[in-house]
Amino acid sequence: RCVIKELESLGKALYGAKLIAQRFQIRNCSHHKDPVSGSACLLSMIEEGNPHHFFIATQDQDLANKVKKKAGVPLLFIIQNTMVLDKPSPKSLAFVQKLQTNQLVPEHQKQSIVQLKEKEGLAKQEGEKRRKRKRAGGPNPLSCLKKKKKKTQEGQEPSTEKKKRRKRKRNR
């Protein structure tokens, strides 16, 4: 509602933008009695971790920079008649990484696991890293095969006879 009020106050120059804004679903904000600027209203709606999963679409660089400082808020903008979804901000990436690590194993369970490992003597000690030694391999088993002897009979010598070759006739 604050954005529409701001567009109405700016006059006929932004009448088209006001019509476009009125087509979308209007969300109630906490300051409907005393409207504030559109950017301040949008920032207040995504204040506590963006619980309604809003996207922010803006061409205002100040608003975009403020949105990037908050985790979990997707940012849309327009470049040459194309809507572009901005890459996640470093805050959002850090928030997701923290959330994933906390979901795997809670902190109190991590501490109890470490304590139990120390108690049982299973904790890894830095000086105890052992590498598996490579053992010398034997010779290649294919090179160890016995050579095959040629079978020659006493009455016959290896074939020294010339084979008859057929001549090919050329057709001209």
TrEMBL record:
Intracellular or extracellular location(s): Nucleus, Nucleolus
A Pfam family per the record: UTP23_sensor
Compositionally biased spans, kind Basic residues: 162-172
Renumbered residue ranges of the record's region Disordered: 106-172
Basic and acidic residues: compositionally biased ranges: 116-129
Family from the record: Belongs to the UTP23/FCF1 family. UTP23 subfamily.
Protein name (Swiss-Prot/TrEMBL): UTP23 protein
Protein source organism: Sagittarius serpentarius (Secretary bird)
Lineage: Eukaryota, Metazoa, Chordata, Craniata, Vertebrata
